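Why predict the complex rather than its parts? Because the way molecules touch one another can change local conformation, and only a joint prediction can capture that. The input here totals 928 residues.
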Amino acid sequence: MTHTMHPPIRRRPTNVPPQGTRGVFLALLILSVLIGVSFLIGWLLSGLTAQVLPGAPAYTILIFMLLTLLVLTPLTYRLFPWITNWFYLLPALVFILAFTVLPVVLTVNYAFTNYSGANSGNPDSASRTAATLSADRLTVTLPEQQGQNLAEFLKCAAPTCAGGTIVLYDEEASVPYRQPVRAISGNTVTLAAPVPETVEVANATRINRYEYVGLANFQEIFGKASRALWPVFLWTVVFAFSTIVINAVAGLILGILLYNKRLKGRNVYRTLLFLPWAVPAVISVQMWVALFNQQFGIVNKTLGLLGVAAVPWLGDPLWAKVSILLVNLWLGFPYMMTATISALSTINDDLYEAAEIDGASRWQQITNITLPLLRTSFTPILLSGFAFNFNNFGIIYLLTAGGPAQEGRESTAQSTDILLSWGYNTAFVSSGGQNFALASAIALIIFFLTLAISLVNFRAAGVFEEARK
Amino acid sequence: MTAAPKTPSDLPPGGYVHREPSLLRRALPWLVTAALVIALIVLGQALVQNMQGRQKSFSIYFVERGWVRFLLFLLAASGVLALTSLLGQRIGMARTGRRISYAAVLGDQLTHLFLILVVLVAVYPLLYVLIAAFDPRNSLFAFPDFENPNILYRSGLMPRLDVLSTENFAKLFEGVTIPGWQLLLAGVGGASLATLLLLMLVGRFGRDSVGLQRTRTWALRVVIAALAALVLFMTPAQFTGFSNESKFLLSVRNTLFVSGVTGILAILLSTTAGYAMARLRFPGRFQMLLFFIFIQMFPVFLALVAVYKLLTDLGLGNTFTGLILAYSGGAIAFNTWIFKGYVESLPESLEEAAMVDGATRWQTFVKVVLPLSGGIMVFIFLNQFIGTYAEFILANVLLTGVEQWTVGVMLRSFTTGQFSTKWGVFAAASTLGALPIIALFYGFQNYFVGGTVSGGVKE
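Output of the joint prediction:
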């Protein structure tokens, strides 16, 4: 069959992705436009839903966004067929962007504001006062505030309150209604638009907005560094380092002992020694609080039999640190033991035989064959263990809650607090006064430290080389 | 993983040349050891100084110089072992006619002694809490019986076995109404579980046939289905008790639900991504891999404030949906990495054969790769499930209502209660709450044992 006429040349979308850096950027651009447009449409639709159904929950935006993505994805495929490779990553990417990257971006944002329990961006229900709405539904009159003029009461940025917001409530103060303000004069607020007929107005209050304060949070952290940042940072590093060393040494000893093939019943020992690993840490750590009690704990009862006076395990700054290390040893040694056993089983027995023929003693075999070969598989385990324990909030919070108190420290950064629990206390414990912005600034510091640790980690574990394959 | 090169081409030109390590390098282990020993001595001195002048507690039975007796006991035990080893070595040599080293036999015996002590120290706390769960007298915090002639009771080391009852457990079930169909489901699930365990025993000790395996698979399916139905259809309205502890079963159900959904979500989100990373070659793949690895280093709770604000603004503050979404963000990167490593270990020829036969990439993934990756998906699910079960910080911040609490948060409320700490109830609840995870762990032991090193290297 021969063609006498060529079909008309049409630019068909190709299946071959554009190569090189250009390809990466193009793909990222297309994907971000896709996700961004879905977000915008979801936002618009959920806004519309909220107008139609006032009680609609805020998470409708997620649903609409997902639906839009489902519609837009095939369309994108029609335009750029080569993007299919990226569609395999899309579900994971969307979730990571929404629930990991977005929170990180928000954290960075909050770190430069004064966002806190008092400046939360929500209506201030404590300073609610009576309000009367005029007949044309355009002005609201508030009673005289003691010692404050209206602009101060509403916490406006401008003296005329233009562009500010007032919050209106009905008699029961159940549903807040936010209304932009055009101007104020005396005790009367002129609204930018009339209040809808459906909203009854009986009360009004202000919004506790938060604003950008520059580096004030970091100034606060570094200004009080000797009372919080430095000691907490030091303990975090000491804790993460020594706990991983102790666990590794214990795991190595037990693993080497249990790998001995002559030893009878070694599977029984292994099964029993797994147990601390099998119990969820969230339960066993709380159990240790009871066992470490100074007056009644089983640990001190045992030590009493050995003639040791009652140790204040959780009641003394130094001993509390020791007990955290001990509990983490109890939690972590089975993992290290198992890792040792699996790593040992990959070592070729011929090496030992050869060494034996050459006349090496058992000790020489351990130091010259076992340990060097274990190092390759142990380095990444130790490094990731360090990174994990650097942010091991669970054991600190559940065992000591950062305590016991120590003189000369901030109330949120006590003797066993690590960086992460210090941030947690600042934001969510009453002594921290719900200072979310300060907690975000602390989190930002932890981000950078974690980043540094992980860079070292990856370099040592050869992750970059493996990923490039 | 082993450093030894396998092919001659890996060798440097000229083969291996042995170089004597430098002096510093040889001295390094000893320097590190010395530094550690010095640190330990300093710490020990600080602790001893800390203990100076501390009174012994009136609530603790005290034996003056008890540690001397303990050392004597160890010495005596070692002596006895030395004798029995000698005996064993002689008998063994006479029976087999081969030379047996005395040092090796004694070493093994001493290893046994050491391991038994380690097991005692590691496992006894759990046993103690287990017995305390059956002791109605809040025995984790009880005075020992100073008059008792038995030293184990006198020191309080051994809980009283004669007063055991299920009172603490009864408190956990106070006011719980369970309709008949749930009882039936629980019965069916329990029966299948028993069958499953029995079949596993039979499989281990007797002959393993195809029929047995099929029955086992079905029993496992029934157990999972019954459990899923129970978890899904249990409602807070069934828990009519007023105290926190009467809602414990609800918190177990909540935790199972949240962990299960997170585990499934982890599989759904990470398999496609992991496959693409392993098999597809496109510009941007390397950058995405790096991005995923970096993300994995940042646990979600670092951005706790932002997650809290985000989810409350979305109206998902005190809901499981919010919690699951927050967990899923953190679950993806690690599991993608694991799945990528697994797919790379599969032979590529299978997929190529399918593609030659006209299958598209997606069909290859769904029909060839997924059916082969059942094991790794079970591992991803279990790992995520267990990790989520033991998660505390996000659950503690996000879940504010008692009826939404997870096990960890619920247990915390027993021990930090404002007016009383309920250690008996705590012990009972810990026992019940830890059981599912212990069972999973031992049931699927091989997955975890195999996963440690490979996972550690891949991390």
